[in-house]
Amino acid sequence: MTPRTRTTTAVDALTEAVRLRIEQRAAELATQGRRLELGDVEDLADRMLAALPTVHPLDQPLGPFYDTAGLVAWLGISRQALFDRVRRGTVLACRTADGHLVYPSLQFGRNGAVRPGVQDAVGAFSRRGVDGWSIGAWLTTPSEVFDGHSAVDYLVVHRSSPTAVSRVASAAVADAAQWAA
Q1: pLDDT of res. 2
Q2: Based on the domain organization, do 15 and 74 belong to the same domain?
Q3: 63-104 residue pLDDT tens
Q4: Are 54 and 66 a contacting pair, CB within 8 Å?
Q5: HEC string of 8-68?
Q6: How far is CA 67 from CA 24, 42, 44, 82, 99, in A?
Q7: Considering its fold, how many domains does the chain have in total?
């Protein structure tokens, strides 16, 4: 199966799943004597797509990225709550040349939580004042410390086991201290 065929199949499956859920919701409302009001369909489509990562020129190897609006919509939190997470070093944000923040999707699990180990690394480097792009490079650059894998890949290979998380966190603390020296 080609990448285009896989994408078309995935889009078709998603479209069908959304259609079925909308029809189900309309039927549920009809039993209550109510009608499904979708409002501005284009606006609704935009809000649905906000949950998907955006394309960015730096997608390889760090991306794709969420923008602030998309991540806020996906996580269901306020901009202020997101910026607070960035400030506390629990979410990785990278500032673009034009001053916008983008958030590498690799840090998030399917439920929107920052992956164990990644959060530890982001925190260790953030506390030392390391910028997001450098943190992202550290997370995605293969290293002998991680048996030739990047920190992110090492966590995936080891299914974020407590040992793998501890190894990534320890390496991040050590490297962050060395970078700050």
Answers
A1: 58
A2: no
A3: 789 999 999 999 999 999 999 999 999 999 999 888 999 999
A4: yes
A5: HHHHHHHHHHHHHHHHHHHHHHHHCCCCCCCCCHHHHHHHHHCCCCECCCCHHHHCCEEEH
A6: 31, 19, 18, 11, 12
A7: 2
pLDDT tens figures, 128-157: 999 999 999 999 999 999 999 999 999 999
Considering the domain architecture, whether residues 46 and 18 belong to the same structural domain is answered as no
Could you tell me if 33 and 72 lie in one domain?
A: no
Full residue range of the structural domain in which residue 88 is found:
40-180
Cβ-based neighbour number of residue 176 at 10 Å: 22
Name the token pair of 155: 């966590």
**24 and 77 assigned to the same domain:** no
Q: Are residues 99 and 27 in the same domain?
A: no
pLDDT at 48: 82
